[in-house]
Write a structure and sequence with these properties.
This protein is α/β, with parallel strands linked by helices. It has one domain: Rossmann fold (3-Layer(aba) Sandwich). The chain has an eight-stranded mixed sheet with strand order 3-4-2-5-1-6-7-8, with helices on both faces. α9 links the parallel β6 and β7. The protein is globular and about 50 Å long. The protein binds adenosine-5'-diphosphate and magnesium ion. The site of adenosine-5'-diphosphate (ADP) has 18 residues, from α1, β7 and α11. Magnesium ion (MG) binds next to α1.
């Protein structure tokens, strides 16, 4: 059975998509079978995996609204034809295109509206080791579909002053979903991203996080690294674009940590 994790944080620009894409590529590099689901109508995780969202024949929209099968809608990540990139292992993608924005409204009147992704994922559960779901920055019906499908949530966060406050909102949301919709849901861990150890406030917030959440804070720390920010413009995860960059190395370490954690708990 696949481990299904949502990458969520209701704030925008905190590194959700960067985390989803690079963890997918990192896990694939470790020979894990990965399906990445893009639940954000912006489609950044799709584009950042080398797939043109405008050319998708089937996407997560058809899966949610029309009951299309994931096995038919999935596409493969595409690293282009540069020899250095082609060597990297790929992962499957259930992509997002612009029309996903409309799904939000269309879902409202539908039966089982929070559980449509869950139902679709059940059919491919045995095909993957990991399913990683990139969520939009809001508590929408799309995000709810992600949270209802998942065994756990990975929360990327920047170590800033208001980060802890935002975290309280997210923890409450997860508690509510746990109580009402998905008894399996829990926080898998908090991932410190865009970290700069030269900023003493960031070090302080990081220490507070560890004091508060203990081993729910991942050991891996993702530094602020320009190579990670450049990679999407080439349609590549940082891990594929420049595997030796500090940020990519940190994501590879994070993927290893994830695999080790899972091995310990099962
Ligand atoms: P979200 O999905 O939460 O909105 P993104 O992953 O799109 O956040 O990240 C927001 C912006 O920050 C993007 O431009 C991305 O390239 C950049 N970014 C993310 N992580 C890093 C990092 N570790 N170092 C530098 N830039 C980063
Ligand atoms: Mg995003």
């Amino acid at each position: 059975m696949a481990h299904i994790f949502c990458v969520a944080n209701q704030k925008g620009g905190v590194g959700k998509t960067t985390t989803t894409v690079n963890l997918s590529a990192g896990l694939a590099a470790l020979s894990q079978r990965v399906l990445m689901v893009d639940l954000d109508p912006q489609g950044n995780a799709t584009m950042g995996s080398g797939v043109d969202k405008r050319e998708l024949e089937l996407s997560v929209y058809e899966v949610l609204i029309e009951g299309a099968e994931i096995a038919k809608a999935k596409v493969l990540s595409n690293w282009g034809d540069q020899p250095a990139h082609r060597l990297h292992k790929t992962y499957d993608i259930l992509g997002a295109s612009r029309e996903l924005a409309a799904a939000e409204l269309e879902l409202v009147g539908m039966e089982n509206r929070e559980k449509r992704l869950k139902q679709a994922l059940e059919k491919v559960d045995n095909d993957y080791d990991f399913v990683l779901i990139d969520c939009p920055p809001s508590l929408s019906l799309l995000t709810l579909n992600g949270l209802c499908s998942a065994n756990g949530v990975i929360v990327p966060m920047q170590c800033e002053y208001f980060a802890l406050e935002g975290l309280t909102d997210l923890v409450n949301t997860i508690k509510q979903v746990h109580a009402n919709l998905n008894r399996e849901l829990k926080i898998i861990g908090l991932l410190r991203v865009m970290f700069d150890p030269r900023v003493s406030l960031q070090v302080q917030v990081s220490d507070q996080l560890k004091a508060h959440f203990g081993d729910k804070v991942f050991n891996a720390v993702i530094p602020r690294n320009v190579r990670l920010a450049e990679a999407p413009s080439f349609g590549l995860p940082g891990v594929v674009y420049d595997p030796n960059a500090k940020g990519s190395q940190a994501f590879i370490a994070f993927a290893k940590e994830m695999v080790e954690r899972i091995a310990k708990n099962t």
